[in-house]
Each structure stands twice: as structure tokens, then as C-alpha cells.
């Protein structure tokens, strides 16, 4: 709600550090209200922390995929002869028949086999039932790797025995995911906190503030014990993000200002436009070497007045000038161009700053 009200564009940390900070603070705050184990809090300076996802369904899918990747790499570390697809065909994960449909759906989406296990008279999944299923699957050559425990099932508001399930997961080295999408919020109340006993066994834990905390749908809080487990499988670094490993979005705004910048570049013989300018992105470079371009960008960054990113198209090093501010005007384009020229001058040693001031 706060980041929406601020109107921030938080697609990468560097684009808006406060949006990341806000999320970190919020999730620690909520985690402390739930008395989650320290492992799940950023403030413990450990490996864990929370993240806001869209829905519970999405969070469970994410946990499942990351657990799959972890299982595949640990299996391949033992036996290099196994291909991904050979391992994937053998992977199985478990939940109770009372688990939310999203648990089974995550298997459909990720191509993994889900075994739904029977519950007791209180619709709760017990540790011995899980253990028996694992033993049976192992004897058949399957590879158990992931378990979903439900706290407050959708159908019956049943609670799996997460202490016992957690013990089994620990012993068998399986990723334990707890879906408390609905019931989790109640555990903030001291009289219901006991329902979370066993959460210390979880590798990931989810709760939807949109269920019971007067937060708009969709909003799902997800805590992970080891952030690496979800960062690593999702780690792809395109060249335009090589400096801070974050995300990028398409920009449809301020097209004429981009052309204005393009003209400034074209009118300076030291520079070239690397790609046709269509929308708000102008890819340009100094006509010199990659090293000169890198050096120029370093100078621009050190001055700290404008933010530019480098990238590569095919093997060519380029600098990306992107117009995306709502209030950006012609004079801002000139200001940015001046910053670029100052850096270029420094690199190429042609003019000094005073000469340039006259130019503008
Ligand atoms: C509501 C609920 C879900 C699904 O939540 P979405 O955010 O709609 O995906 C999953 N599990 C449980 C236990 C739920 O109560």
C-alpha cells in the first residue's frame, strides 16, 4: 500500500532502494508479530528473509520449483551420470488430500508428480503416514524431495501435524513448505501461536495478508530460511543488468525526448547511435574502444548526477539512455547530455569543463 502510494518504480534495487527496504522492514515486522524463528528474519543477519509474492498459489509453485532445482543439483553432485530429465521423472512430492488445489496445480505446471496422502479423523496429515509414503517411494526408485504441510486447510480448516512432518523432512532431507495462507494471520494472537509450533522445521512458510489482514488481494508473504535457495534457481543476468542483477521493464513514455537526445548524440562526431531509436531507449556509444566507453560510464557514475546502464548487443558494448521520468523535460535531456560530454572530455582529454559551459 505504501509503495503504491509513493508511486515508486521498484523493478530493481538500484531503481528505488526504498522499495526494497520497505519490503524488508515490513516482512521482518510481520515475522516478528508471528514470532517466527530468527532464521526467517533479515534482522538476524542470517541467510533467511521474507518476500512479497502475488498469491499463495504462486508462492507454492516458486517453492516447488526451487526445491526441484536444489534436489537436481544435489543429486547430480553425487552422480554426474544422471540427466535432468532422468531425475525429474523420479522426483515426487507430498501433501495431504486436504491441501489447497494450488499444491497439485504447481505439479502440473512444473511437470512434477504429487502424491496426496490420506489424513486422520481430524483431516490432519501425520508424520508416520508421510514416512511410510517416502519409504514406499524410495523402494520403487523414486526421489522424494518436497513436502507441503497445511495449517488451516481451505476445505475443513484442518491443521497438519507440522512438528512430526518437520521431523520427517529433516531426517529425510526434504524441503518443507508450510501453507498457512488463511490461518497464518491468526497466529499473531498469543492464544493461537501454538498452531505454529514446528514452523522452525520449515524451509519456506507462507501467509496471505489478503485473507485476514484487510489487505487488498493479491498479496502473499513468503519467508525462506535460506534466500540462496530461491535466488540461485532464478538467477539470470542479461547484459543490461550486469551491474546490479535486477529486473528491467519496457518503457513506452517520452518518445520525442528520446529523439531529442538521439539528435544530440548524432551531432557529436565522437559518438554513435548503436540501434534505431523507436521508443524511450537510446543505445549509444563513444566511437572508441569498449574500455573508453566503460571508463566514461565510470566517470558519469562517480559524478552521481545521472544514472546510465551499459549493456551488450551481440558483442558490442553500448550505453543505454532511458527517458522514463514523468516530469522529464527538454532541459533535463540537455543536463544529461552535458554530464555525458564532461565525462567524454575527461576520457578523450579534448575540452575542459569551462568550454562546455559556454556551449550550453
Ligand atoms: C486461500 C488459500 C490458498 C490460495 O490462495 P491464492 O492466494 O488465491 O493462491 C492456498 N492455500 C490455502 C490454505 C488457502 O487458504
Return the domain count: 2
Uncertain parts: 244-254
Could you say which overall geometry the principal axes of the C-alpha atoms support? elongated
Residue share in β-strands: 15-25%
CATH architecture of the largest domain: 3-Layer(aba) Sandwich
The number of distinct β-strands equals 11
Whole-number radius of gyration?
A: 26 Å
In the CATH scheme, what's the topology name of the largest domain? Aspartate Aminotransferase, domain 2
Listed once per kind, the bound small molecules are: pyridoxal-5'-phosphate
Instruction: Find the structural class using helix and strand composition.
Output: alpha/beta
What is the class of the largest domain in the CATH system?
A: Alpha Beta
By CATH, the superfamily of the largest domain comes out as Type I PLP-dependent aspartate aminotransferase-like (Major domain)
Order of helices and strands: HHEHHEHEHEHEEHEHHEEHEEHH
Mean pLDDT across residues: 90
- The DSSP helix count reads 13
State the end-to-end CA separation.
Answer: 42 Å
User: Biggest β-sheet, characterized?
Assistant: 7 strands, mixed
Instruction: Indicate the multimeric state.
Output: single chain
Strands of the widest sheet, in order across it, are 1-7-6-5-4-2-3
How much helical structure, as a percent, in the residues? 40-55%
Amino acid at each position: 500500500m505504501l509503495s503504491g502510494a509513493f508511486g515508486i518504480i521498484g523493478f530493481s534495487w538500484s531503481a528505488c532502494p526504498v522499495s526494497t527496504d520497505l519490503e524488508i522492514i515490513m516482512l521482518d515486522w510481520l515475522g516478528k508479530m508471528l514470532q517466527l524463528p530468527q532464521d526467517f528474519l533479515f534482522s538476524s543477519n542470517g541467510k533467511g528473509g521474507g518476500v512479497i509474492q502475488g498469491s499463495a498459489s504462486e508462492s507454492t509453485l516458486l517453492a516447488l520449483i526451487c526445491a526441484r532445482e536444489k534436489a537436481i543439483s544435489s543429486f547430480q553432485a553425487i552422480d554426474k551420470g544422471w540427466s535432468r530429465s532422468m531425475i525429474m521423472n523420479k522426483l515426487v512430492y507430498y501433501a495431504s488430500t486436504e491441501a489447497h488445489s494450488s499444491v497439485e496445480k504447481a505439479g502440473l505446471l512444473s511437470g512434477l508428480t504429487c502424491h496426496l496422502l490420506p489424513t486422520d479423523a481430524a483431516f490432519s496429515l501425520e508424520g508416520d503416514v508421510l514416512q511410510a509414503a517416502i519409504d514406499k517411494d524410495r523402494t520403487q526408485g523414486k526421489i522424494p524431495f518436497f513436502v507441503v504441510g497445511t495449517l488451516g486447510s481451505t476445505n475443513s480448516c484442518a491443521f497438519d501435524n507440522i512438528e512430526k512432518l518437520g521431523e520427517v523432512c529433516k531426517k529425510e532431507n526434504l524441503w518443507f513448505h508450510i501453507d498457512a495462507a488463511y490461518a497464518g494471520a491468526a497466529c499473531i494472537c498469543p492464544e493461537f501461536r501454538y498452531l505454529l509450533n514446528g514452523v522452525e522445521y520449515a524451509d519456506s512458510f507462507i501467509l496471505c495478508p489478503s485473507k485476514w489482514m484487510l489487505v487488498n488481494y493479491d498479496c502473499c508473504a513468503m519467508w525462506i530460511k535460506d534466500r540462496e535457495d530461491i535466488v540461485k534457481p532464478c538467477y539470470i543476468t542479461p547484459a543490461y543488468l550486469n551491474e546490479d542483477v535486477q529486473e528491467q521493464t519496457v518503457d513506452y513514455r517520452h518518445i520525442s525526448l528520446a529523439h531529442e537526445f538521439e539528435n544530440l548524440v548524432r551531432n557529436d562526431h565522437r559518438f554513435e547511435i548503436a540501434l534505431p531509436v523507436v521508443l524511450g531507449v537510446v543505445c549509444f556509444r563513444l566511437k572508441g574502444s569498449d574500455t573508453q566507453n566503460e571508463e566514461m560510464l565510470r566517470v558519469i557514475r562517480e559524478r552521481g548526477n545521472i544514472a546510465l546502464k551499459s549493456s551488450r548487443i551481440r558483442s558490442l558494448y553500448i550505453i543505454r539512455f532511458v527517458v522514463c521520468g514523468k516530469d522529464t523535460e527538454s532541459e533535463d535531456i540537455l543536463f544529461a547530455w552535458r554530464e555525458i560530454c564532461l565525462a567524454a572530455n575527461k576520457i578523450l582529454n579534448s575540452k575542459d569543463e569551462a568550454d562546455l559551459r559556454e556551449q550550453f
